[in-house]
Structures are given as structure tokens and as C-alpha cells.
Amino acid sequence: MSNLALFGGNPVRTKDFPSWPVFDEAEEQALLEVLRGGRWWVFSYGESLEEAQASEGSKVAEFERAFARQQGTRYGVACANGTAALEIALKALGVGAGDEVIVPPYTFVATAAAALAVSAAPIFCDIDYNTLNLDPQRLEQAITPRTRAIIPVHFAGQAADMGAILDIAGRHGIAVLEDAAHAHGAAWNGQGLGTLGRAGTFSFQGSKNMTAGEGGLIITGDRDLAELCGSLVWGGRKLGRPWYEHHRLGWNYRLTEFQAAILLAQLKRLQSQNARRMENGLYLNRQLAQIAGIHPVEVASFATMHSFHLYVFRFNAAEFGIPRDRFLEALQREGIACSAGYMHPLYRNPMFLQHEFHNGGGGRECQIDYAAFRELCPAVERICQEAVWLEHRQLLGDRADMQDIVDAVIKIYEARAEFRPT
Fold first, then answer.
1. How confident is the model over 402-419, as a mean pLDDT?
2. Which residue among 106, 189, 276, 291 sits deepest, i.e. has the most Cβ atoms within 10 Å of its Cβ?
3. pTM listed for this prediction
4. Which of 50-54, 226-230, 287-291, 408-412 comes out lowest in average pLDDT?
5. Which of 334, 295, 317, 337 is nearest to 412 (CA)?
6. Among this protein's residues, is 208 annotated catalytic?
7. Which strands make up the sheet holding 75-79, listed edge to edge?
8. Which candidate in 15, 59, 91, 208 is catalytic?
């Protein structure tokens, strides 16, 4: 009888990894404080941005200050979710109809959809095969006279090559907006992600390293940009002006006091949780790299804090000896939750191939042939056939938990001859 759980053997692991989200009495007390206080949302921030930042009694204002300070910048603007944060930041940067925004094709749809939402066109630039982040060596060829912004995604919590990206953007006069939805507390050469470009955006959706179920935040050191983002979040109002006076088209993208209360409690755990994730992620890198066909994603030297929102390795089926889908099935049965992640690059989605953009982003008159990016982005085409993702909650376990992951992969490798050809 086979030792593999897939074929009737005993699994390496029968207990679950740490659950997510992590919470305790701190979140409970914070919610009760808001509930009993009766201040469930903020009516006014004050006459100026400085007064808004110093607003007493508002959990939203307190969280904006605390998170911005943690990342190493001055201003935070909270909003409903990370997708809204990207859209608002692009609007505040002046991106609009006829403009192009460069994005990587290995990311959640929101990164590109935000460009479409402001009637700009997303242009895909390939990723670095070793780090999964935007490849600076391919960036310049994606720039055109219409390029207005570049959105590097700090994928899985690892800093993109911001030195190279900022250098290229600076030479062309293009704004850089960091999508740091995976990168709470992460850093590039010791500098908090989201603080290197004109602005950075974060998500607090349920799977993220900090969560209130939903929520988003824009951070920036630019006072005027922060004030404009705040206006766009809240109906186009202007600080210091009458309540029912609207200065620009804005929406109601507010974060609630309840969500901010939860996030303040979550923020207090972030550094210790990230340290645990990074320690365990680097341990897995060392151990799994010794197994044929397993290639952990490279951690760049400038990624001085990697938040490991995902733990990712590349799976080479020819070297390992079995197809990836069978490997994933076997690893799941050994008690290790895993997935293939994005099954195809973002530009292969029907939305892009069929130009289903409503009447924004160029709509049906958009002339960009998104199918052509298959030839322009060879690295992401490979990654979508090779990647294996583990969840960040798994990296909150101890060394024995990490060893279970390693042992499960070794067990499958040693039994690879038992898999029948498909």
C-alpha cells in the first residue's frame, strides 16, 4: 500500500494551521467602545488637513495617523476597500481619459480595473520570472507618450525593484503609485512600502495580513494629494467649507468607525506576525530549494521586510516528475492547503479580450489588442503554469508546522513513481 494520503496512506498532517483572522479581546473591546460611544462615523474632520489628522475621538482618524506613521509617511486617507483606494489615487494624480497606466499582469484584477474606472487604459508589462514583480528591464518599452502612471505591485508582500522603477519613471516624468495590498509593514531598503512613489494603497479585505473584513487606505507624504484624495472619498467636499458644498465629483467611499477600531487592534500585532512569517518563509526557502523541481521565489536583497502575504514557489513538473495538478492534489491530501493561484495572466480574462469595459477605459472603441500581450509577457505565461501558493496564515505556525510542509513535499517527491502517466 502507498504511503501517500492520495492513495490511501496516512497524511503528514491532520491538524490545521493557525486560523485567520487572528483576533482576541482587543478587537472585541474596540468594537464595544465604538458601539457604546454612539459615534459610528465621522461627521467632520475639521477646518484643515492638520485638524483632520489630529481629530480626537475618531477611530478612522486615529488609524489613518497610525498606519501612515508605521509605514514612514505623514498622511493616510481611509476608504472602503483597496480597489477604491487605487481608483481614488489615480483620480487624484490626474489620470483620465486617453491616458495609459502600466500594470503587471500577475495581480488581482483591481490593479488594472482601477485604470479602467478612471477611463484610462491599462498596459501590461511583464514580471521578473524570479521575483514575480514588475520587471524594470521591460518597463521602458511599455512606455508611450500617453503613459501617465506606473503601478508596481509588491506581490506576495515582497518589495518591487523600486530603485529601478523610480529611476525610469523619473526620467519620463511619470507618476508611480504603489499597490501594496499584500505588503502591510513591508519595506524596501528599510523604507516602508507605499512611501516611495507619489502614493501607496493598501487593502484590508478578509484574506490580507491585516483585516477588518474590508477596507482600504491611501498613504502619501504629499499634503495636497492627501487632501484631494480625502475630498474624492467623501462626496467632493472641501475641508473648511460648508457641508453641502461640493467642489468636484466624488463618491461615498468612507471607512466606518467599527472597521477602523478593528484595524487599530490588528496593527498592534502586525510587526510580530510579519517577523514570524518572514522567519518561516526564509526557512521554507532554504529547505524546499533542496528538492528537485521546487524553486522558491527569490527574495531580493532590497526586500528588507517581506510580509509574505503568500508563500510562493515555482514547480517544475519535468524536474519533479509529476504534473502540477497532481502535485497540488497530493499536497492537499497530505494536509497542506495550497493552490495554483492565478491560472492565467490578467490580460487573458474575457473582460480584456472582449473589451467589456462598460463606457469607461475606452469602452468598445478601445484599440488595444490585449491578446497581443501573450507574446510580450513570456515570464508571466510561464509562472501561471508553474506557481504554487500557500496562505500567509500557515506561516504563523511554528518550526514543526513548517517542517510538515517540507516533509509533505519530500514525501510526494519520493513517491513520484507511483503516479500513473495522465
1. 97
2. 106
3. 0.95
4. 50-54
5. 334
6. yes
7. 75-79, 216-220, 199-203, 175-179, 147-150, 100-103, 121-124
8. 208
